[in-house]
Amino acid sequence: MGSIYSVSWAGGDTTFQRLVVKRCVAAYLALLTQQSLVFLHIVPLIYYTAQEIINNWIDFGIFLILLGFFICELFSTITLAVSYRGIILIMFYYV
Length: 95
Known about the structure:
single chain, mainly alpha, transmembrane helix, transmembrane
């Protein structure tokens, strides 16, 4: 006689095996439900954002160009401020 924890590989079914299968199926279904809730909110948001970018591609392109100019100006200002010659130039500029 085997215990309820024994596994029968010949196709027999034990109480422990049924319990494990039920718990695994329940956990799997819970995981699927969680994923579907995530996909229910995230995928439409990404799709909507992509559609907005596609519909407003001219505005988005101008924004990217202006953002690039701003980043270049910011980097040049930082470089000027931390360099020695830049400090001297700034001092003479305000004197």
